[in-house]
Amino acid sequence: MIVQPKIRGYICTTAHPVGCANSVAQQIDFVKKQGPIDGGPKKVLVIGASNGYGLASRIVAAFGCQADTVGVFFERSSENNKRTATAGWYNTVAFEKQAQADGLYAKSFNGDAFSNRIRQDVCQTIKEDLGQVDLVIYSLASPRRQHPETGEISKSVLKPIGAPFQGKSLNLNTLEMEMIALEPASDDEIQQTVAVMGGNDWTLWIESLLADDLLAPGANTVAYSYIGPEVTRLIYRNGTIGRAKDHLEQTAKQLDAKLKVINGHAVVSVNKAIVTQSSSAIPFIPLYFVILTRVMKAMNLEESCVEQMHRLFQSRLFNGNGIIVDEQGIVRMDDYEMREEVQKKVMANWERVNIRNLRELADIEEYNKQFLRLFGFGLDNTDYQEDVRIDLAIPSIKS
Ligand code: NAD
To answer: Which of 1, 185, 317, 365 could cysteine-pair with 189, CB 3.0–4.6 Å?
Structure first.
């Protein structure tokens, strides 16, 4: 099949198998070029392993630390050769093939990480194949969650709290600026968002692993969060998703106390804003991102997802001196983004930006490029006129 991008708002409904493989290969190549990370983990579980920060973490663990990895994600294979699989599916095909070629153990689970069944299957596999893991990365971004005991379905919403909010945003269909208005969330919507994106499910994973003695002495667990600047505060950090992130950060403290029995730690890492399938769906974030990118590039501070995860492993988690955290006990990978001189320029440009000067103040082309790359499009070394196979199997997943 000749695969072309089909974009609907903030999602692309097709993915290019060769492009995704090339994108993964580039990330692996970057990590290998940095050399081995001394003292890194050797057996790693990544929950949310097929895209964005979770995929980059799995790549750094495997190819930077030579770790055996187990990955969990929710993706779709190609259906009867009629439509392409999702990008995360193709990313994992490429990841596992390279891991195998390098003699690294890699097993993947495609299914609902919120369910008891997937958690139990993963624990069983760790017990049988690896014995224990020494790092658990929790990198889920999901719009809904079915509670594993009650069956109740919660949906996550991206809304302000307490008052409506109106502001500048980027229309992802036209790549032009627009004003959007959002009504405040109800108490129920806040609770549902916390149920999906807070720390409840992370706790269930860590408790299950602990109960089955699957965490090695000194094992760590890390979940990812975001804070961001003043201009997105009302919709992000003070909005529904921010409440979920507050919960995630409180959960880290509780899990850290629980992990004392194995001398382990639980922390949250606050990462930088990047273009991923999930972040593109958050109102106002893409506009902030395009303004931020122009400023960070000009200051030589721009970092890709995998570059950032490499820095997280090498300089914050496994640097030989324990985990480096701020005064709140949080790992800060948003340090470049939040630098005063960066934010001053971003704020000034945010105030000035309008329909006419958008392309002068914001890096729209870079956003477009990064968005297409998420689905394997727009890579230099990929022939998009070529007839490619779309029904690829993930080596460790039986069909
Ligand atoms: P992403 O959309 O790129 O990846 C999400 C992953 O979760 C995928 O592997 C997907 O398959 C998996 N997933 C979703 N629902 C699932 C389910 N029910 N069961 C199993 N797997 C499921 O997301 P991302 O942007 O990398 O976000 C990961 C984490 O990083 C989130 O907690 C997010 O808030 C945080 N974060 C993101 C940014 C950013 O700008 N993108 C910044 C800071 C922190």
So the answer is: 185
For the chain, domain boundaries: 7-164+189-282+302-335
Query: Ligand 1 pocket: which of 279, 332, 334 to mutate (most atoms <8 Å of CB)?
Result: 279
Annotation says 10 is catalytic:
no
Between 11 and 304, the more confident residue is 304
Catalytic residue among 138, 226, 236, 367: 236
Mean pLDDT across the stretch 345-359? 93
Q: Does the CB atom of residue 165 touch ligand 1 within 6 A?
A: no
Q: Regarding the domain with residue range 7-164+189-282+302-335, which homologous superfamily does it belong to in the CATH classification?
A: NAD(P)-binding Rossmann-like Domain (3.40.50.720)
Q: What is 239-304 written as a DSSP string?
A: SHHHHHHHHHHHHHHHHHHHGGGGT-EEEEEEPPP---TTGGGSTTHHHHHHHHHHHHHHTT----
pTM score > 0.90 for this model?
A: yes
